[in-house]
Specification:
Distance between the termini of chain B: 73 Å
Oligomer: heterodimer
Radius of gyration of chain A: 21 Å
Largest sheet of chain A: none
Structural class of chain A: mainly alpha
CATH topology of chain A: Helix Hairpins
Number of helices of chain B: 7
Number of strands of chain A: 0
Order of helices and strands of chain A: HHHH
Largest sheet of chain B: none
Number of helices of chain A: 4
Strand content of chain A: under 5%
Number of domains of chain B: 3
Shape of chain A: elongated
Chain lengths: ~120, ~180
C-alpha cells in the first residue's frame, strides 16, 4: 500500500494537469477554457500539498505544546504557499471572466472560432 | 484505501468537467470537483487549505461562473477531438511521468521538502509568534510579506474588475443610445 502511495499522487497530478492543458488548447468555449485553467491550477496545488504529507503525521497545530512527547507533524510550509496560491487563482479567474464578459459584449459570442471568424470579416 | 479512491474520483470529475455537454452542468461538476479536492486536502491534513478551497473554489468561483453564464449565451459544441492538442498534452504527460522517476517518495519524513526550514518553524513558531497553528504563524508572521503581496494582487484584481466592467457599461450605454437615436431619425 505504501509503495503505491509513494508515487500515486504524482500520477493523479499529471493526469489532471494534462486534462487541464488539453482543455485550454482544444475547447472553443471561453468559459470552458477558464474552467480548464482552474483544473490545471488545482493540480499544481495538489502536487505541493502532497509533498507536505508525512506518513503518520497530524495537522500542524501545536495542541499540547510543551507537555510531553510531541506528535509527528506534517510540513506546514507548502500548505501556507498554496493557501496564497488559491486566493491569487480566484483573482485571475475573476479578471478572466470579466474579460470574457467584455468579449461577449463586443462580439455577441464566447466561442473562439466564431470570434476569429468575425475578426477575419472585419479585416 | 480512501487515499486511492478520492484522487480517482478527482480525476473522473476533472475529465467530466471538460467533456460533458452544456456549460451549466460543466460548472456544477467543477463545483463538485472543488469539494472533492477539499476532502482530499483534509486527508492530506491541510485543514486551512481545505477550508479555503471549500469557500473559494466551491463557493465564490461557482457563483462567478454562474453570473457570467447568466449574462452570455452559448451554443453546444460538438464532441470532436482536437488531435494536435491531444498529442501535445499526452507527450507532456509522458515527459512528466518520466520525471517522477527522479522525484522523492511521498510520505517520507526525510525527503528534501520536509527537512530544510520546516523543523525550525515547528520548534520555534510558538515562542516567536505565540500562535498554536503553525500554518497561521508562517502565513501571517514569517512570510507576512508574501501575504501582503497576495493582498495586493487581490486588490489589483478588484480594481481591474471595476475598471473593466464599469468602462464597458458606459460605452455600451452610449452605443445603445446612439443606436436608439439613429433608429428614431
Amino acid at each position: 500500500m505504501i509503495e503505491i502511495l509513494a508515487k500515486y499522487n504524482y500520477w493523479i497530478v499529471i493526469i489532471l494537469l494534462c486534462t487541464g492543458l488539453y482543455g485550454i488548447m482544444a475547447k472553443q468555449n471561453l468559459i470552458k477554457k477558464i474552467i480548464a485553467l482552474n483544473v490545471f491550477q488545482t493540480s499544481v496545488l495538489l502536487f505541493y500539498v502532497s509533498m507536505s504529507k508525512i506518513e503518520g503525521g497530524t495537522a500542524p497545530i501545536l495542541l499540547n505544546h510543551g507537555h510531553g512527547v510531541q506528535p509527528l507533524f506534517d510540513n506546514p510550509l507548502p500548505q501556507v504557499l498554496m493557501l496564497t496560491a488559491i486566493v491569487v487563482g480566484i483573482s485571475t479567474t475573476a479578471v478572466a471572466l470579466s474579460i470574457v464578459m467584455l468579449i461577449y459584449r463586443q462580439y455577441g459570442t464566447i466561442e473562439e472560432d466564431q470570434i476569429l471568424e468575425l475578426n477575419k470579416h472585419n479585416d | 484505501m480512501i487515499d486511492i479512491a478520492i484522487p480517482l474520483f478527482l480525476v473522473v470529475c476533472g475529465i467530466a468537467v471538460l467533456f460533458v455537454r452544456g456549460l451549466f452542468s460543466s460548472i456544477m461538476i467543477f463545483s463538485v470537483y472543488s469539494l472533492v479536492m477539499a476532502i482530499e486536502w483534509v486527508r492530506l491534513n491541510a485543514v486551512d487549505v481545505a477550508i479555503t478551497e471549500a469557500a473559494v473554489g466551491a463557493g465564490i468561483s461557482t457563483v462567478l461562473f454562474i453570473i457570467i453564464l447568466s449574462r452570455t449565451k452559448y451554443v453546444d459544441e460538438g464532441k470532436h477531438m482536437n488531435i494536435p492538442a491531444l498529442l501535445v498534452s499526452v507527450s507532456v504527460a509522458a515527459v512528466l511521468l518520466y520525471g517522477t522517476l527522479d522525484l522523492p517518495n511521498l510520505r517520507d519524513p526525510n525527503i528534501a521538502p520536509n527537512t530544510h526550514v520546516t523543523p525550525y518553524y515547528l520548534e520555534h513558531s510558538y515562542e516567536e509568534t505565540g500562535q498554536l497553528n503553525v500554518v497561521a504563524a508562517i502565513l501571517a508572521s514569517y512570510r507576512g510579506y508574501d501575504t501582503l503581496g497576495e493582498t495586493t494582487v487581490v486588490a489589483t484584481a478588484g480594481f481591474c474588475l471595476i475598471l473593466l466592467l464599469r468602462g464597458s457599461n458606459r460605452r455600451q450605454g452610449t452605443k445603445d443610445s446612439q443606436k436608439r437615436t439613429g433608429s428614431r431619425t
